[in-house]
Amino acid sequence: MRRADLKAVGEVRRALRELMRHRCRADTADVAELLVTELVTNALVHTDQGAEVSVRLAATRLRVEVRDHNARRPTPYVTSADDGTHGRGLVLVQALADTWGVDPLALGRGKVVWFELEAVAPA
After folding, report:
1. Of 27, 41, 61, 67, which sits most exposed with the smallest number of CB within 10 A?
2. Looking at the DSSP assignment, which residues form a beta bridge with residue 111?
3. pTM of the entire structure?
C-alpha cells in the first residue's frame, strides 16, 4: 500500500475482522481493527514507500505487524487541543495493546511496528 492508498486501510480492517470473526471475541476484534487502522495510517502518511501488513493468530495470541521503509522510530506523544484528531495513534496502541514495539529492519531499511492482543475464542 502507498500513501495514495489510504482507502486500503478499510480493506485491511475488513480482512482482519474476517480472520478474527470465529476465532476471537468481538471486543478483541474491535480493538485489533482500531490499532491496525492507526498503524497502517501512520505508515502511509509518514512514509513515502508504502507499508506491508502481516497478521499471525496463534492459539491465544494475535500479532499484527506493519512494516514500512522509513527507519525513523515513531514515538507516542501527548497531543494538544490544537492537534485535532492527529497524533493519537501510538498513544492508543500503547494504551490498548497487551504489548507492542518497534523493531528496526537490517541496514536501516525501515521498521516493523507491531502489537499483540490476547485472542480468546468466543464463548
Report:
1. 27
2. 68, 104
3. 0.85
Tell me the CA distances in angstroms from 72 to 14, 101, 115, one per residue in order: 28, 13, 18
Closest listed residue to residue 37, CA positions, set 83, 118, 96, 108: 96
Tell me the per-residue pLDDT of 52-75, one tens digit each, with 9 for 90 and over: 999 999 888 999 999 998 888 887
Q: What is the DSSP string of 46-114?
A: H-SS-EEEEEEE-SSEEEEEEEES--PPP------GGGTT-S-HHHHHHHH-SEEEEEEPGGG--EEEE
**Residue keyed to cell 474491535:** 30
Query: In 3-state terms, what secondary structure has residue 115?
Result: strand
